[in-house]
Amino acid sequence: MADAVMQLSPQVQMWVVFGIILVALAGYASEKVPMEVTSIGVISALMLFFQFSPVEGDVERLGPARILQGFANPALITVLALLVMGEAISRTGILDRAARLVLRLGGGRPWLAILIALAAVLIVSGFMNNIPVVVIFIPIMRALASRFGMHVGKVMIPLSYAAVLGGMTTLVGSSTNLLVNGALFERGEAPFGFFDFTVTGCVLAAVGLLYLIVAAPKLLPERVAFTDEVIDRAGTQFIAQLTVSSDSDLIGEQAPGGLFIGLPDMTVRMVQRGEDAILPPFERLSVQAGDIIVVAATRKTLTDALARDPGLLFPHLHFEEGAESPLDDHDPDESQPWLEGEQVLAEAMVTPSSRLIGHPLTRIQFRYRTGCIVLGIQRRARMFRSRLTDIRLEAGDVLLIQGPPDAVRGLRSVNDVLLIEWSREELPALDHARRASLVFVGSLALAAFEILPIVAATLTGAVMMVALGVLNIRHAVRAVDPNVVATIGVALALGVALTETGGAAFIAGQFLQAMEGSSPTVVLSGFFLLLAILSNVISTKTTAVLFTPIAVDIALQLGVAPQIFAVAVIFAANSSFASPIGYQTNLLVMGPGHYRFADFAKVGIPLIAVLWITFSLFAPWYYGL
Question: For residue 617, is pLDDT > 80?
Answer without folding.
Answer: yes
